[in-house]
Structure formats: C-alpha cells, structure tokens
Amino acid sequence: MIEFVALTLLFMVPLIYLVLAFARVQAGSFAAEAAAASSSRAAVVAGVEASEEGLSSSQALAVAGRRASAAVALAAGDFGIPEDRVALELDCEGSCLDPGTNVVSTVTVTVPLPGLPGFLAGAFPLEVEVQSHSRSPVDSVVVDS
Question: What is the pLDDT of residues 47-57, one digit of tens each?
Fold first, then answer.
C-alpha cells in the first residue's frame, strides 16, 4: 500500500504541474490571439473614424493606437493576464489608414510558469513568451450623398 501511494505521488505531482503549466501557456496564447485580432480591428475603425472627423493623419494614428491599447488590455483581462505582461506593436503595410492598406497588430504575452522560484532563473526559463499577429484591411469609405 505504501508503494502505491509513493508511486502515485511520484508520478501525479509532476503531471499536475505540467497540466497547470500548459493551461497557463494556453490561456496566454488565447489572450494573445484575441488581443491581436481585437486591436487591429479597433485601430482601423478608430483611425478611420478620426480621419473622417477631420483629424490629421498623426492625430488619427494616435487615436487608433489608444483604442488598440484599450482593446489589448480588455482582451488580456478576460484571460486573467495583467496588463504589464502584454506588449502591443502596431504597424502599417503601406501608408497608414489609407484605403486598401492593412494595419498589422503584433501582441506579445509573457506567461510566468507556476511555482518556479526566482533563484532558478539561470537554470530554467521562468516565463514563456507567446506572440500573435493579426492584419486588418482599411476599407474604402463610401459616403452617401
């Protein structure tokens, strides 16, 4: 009976740790994917709206960047990822916010592995970076007269 308990603990504890670690990394992956898709769409919509309201190109890009950052924070929060562990990079293919171009969003989420003490930093990675890209097209705007 003692052997059964000892072997069960020997095999189950690492298995449970692996399940927890994989679940946390998967949540980070889902958060990165959702944040990238949401931020690229939000940047396009906010940037085009700002341009239509008469703001300059640089002001419209600033509005788009703020809206994309808010979308990233919201998506990361949905998955329990703190904002300080998420990085957003917006880029444009062609001239930003011109019809026919694309806005590319790259989101990097840093996922800490559970239960690893800090003194192991030199021997083992204590965190995993998950990155996702999303591209949203800027559509032509047709104004009804």
Answer: 989 988 888 88
